[in-house]
Amino acid sequence: MHKVSQQTIQTAQKHAQELIEQSKAVKDLGESLQTDDQSSHQKGKRIKDCGESMEKQAHKVKDLTTRLAEDGSTEVFTEAVQEHINLTQTHIEAIKEFQKTLPLPKRNRSFKECE
Questions:
Q1: 42 contacts 98 by C-beta, under 8 angstroms
Q2: Report field, pTM of the whole predicted structure over 0.85
Q3: What is the rounded CA–CA span in Å between residue 19 and residue 23?
Q4: Which residue in 34, 22, 27, 21 sits closest to 48, CA to CA?
Q5: How wide is the angle at C-alpha 27 spanned by C-alphas 18 and 85, nearest 5°?
Q6: pLDDT digits over 26-60, tens only?
Q7: 42, 52, 55, 111: which sits with the fewest CB atoms below 10 Å from its CB?
Q8: DSSP helix/strand/coil, 1
Q9: What is the spatial distance between Cα 26 and Cα 21, in angstroms, rounded to a whole number?
Q10: Separation CA 111–CA 49 (nearest Å)
Q11: Nearest partner of 28 among 52, 5, 1, judged by Cα
């Protein structure tokens, strides 16, 4: 059976911790966007929900990297990578929701101003 290198395991563990911190930042952003304005409140709640989901996924990645450190199997590594992909998809959802909170660009600028 193939084994994952110790360096790869350490990198995965460090990255898992960074994912946890990133998910908390997304959750905090969502909370900060929840205002009295109904539209902003809903968008903020959806971003916060994405952050909470990301946090659960990040902890799962961390747990998998702990298992990986114990046995070094490529199967556990593959499972951790898949969970990271799922987390990334959730992060993309949060980013799209955040983009909806941004003001629309001015539409009266000429093409040359954009260059």
A1: no
A2: no
A3: 6
A4: 27
A5: 50
A6: 999 999 998 878 888 899 999 999 999 999 999 99
A7: 111
A8: coil
A9: 9
A10: 38
A11: 52
Tokens 């971003």, residue? 47
- Concatenating the DSSP letter of every residue in 8-29 gives HHHHHHHHHHHHHHHHHHHHHH
Q: Encoding tokens for residue 101?
A: 């909170």
Structure tokens at 86: 């799922």
Phi, psi at 59, each rounded to 5°: -65, -35
DSSP state, 31? H
Q: Within 10 A of 80 (CB to CB), how many other CB atoms are there? A: 25
Cα(4)–Cα(90) distance, integer angstroms: 27
The token pair that represents 15 in the structure block:
């990255």
- Could you tell me the two tokens for 83? 């969970």
Question: Is there a contact between 52 and 31 (Cβ–Cβ < 8 Å)?
Answer: no
Structure tokens at 104: 């629309």
In whole angstroms, give the CA distance from residue 112 to residue 15: 42
